[in-house]
Specification:
It is a single chain. The protein is an all-alpha fold. It has 2 domains: about 40 residues, no CATH class; about 110 residues, AhpD-like, CATH 1.20.1290. It contains 9 helices and no strands. About 30% of the residues are buried.
Length: about 180
Amino acid sequence: MNEALAPRAAFISPPEKMAPWLRLGIWYAEREAGKELLPGRLLAWYPPAAISSGLLESLIADGKKDLTPRLLRLVRLQVSLVVSCPFCVSMNSVELSDSLITAVELSALRSQIDVDAVATFSERERIAVRYARLISATPLKFPPEFVEELTANFAEREIVILATTAAQVNYWARLIQALGIPV
């Protein structure tokens, strides 16, 4: 088999032993995800990182109060694609049909077509997708005209939720890639 196509393992293996409370947290996360989550298992090497990452994930915006689940899904998926994290794309593509994300919209998130050319995106969704792209770019640059458009269309709380949602996916993408975790 071609080495480039062969399945690979993460850079390190999970610890053989971990504290019972940490094992319980990982069990719960995996039950919710419906699959084994290697990132959580590897974080068990350093419990403070496992705890803080688990807490960050448990407090994720779910779209029940402020922004819609669909808009948040678009942001998560857009960040996953921008930072080229196959694991993140996989995790954030679950239940795409539940969010009613179409093939055309997915093409826009993949930058195959212009986001503004997709009639099914609302104005807020277009802005949120562009914001997710800006948050995920290096260096970070927010043109004043974009900030004006953002603040005209989203309340302060919504902007914080958008920023933290995109930053959270960026965090996971960098961590997953830094540990060599395969999809």
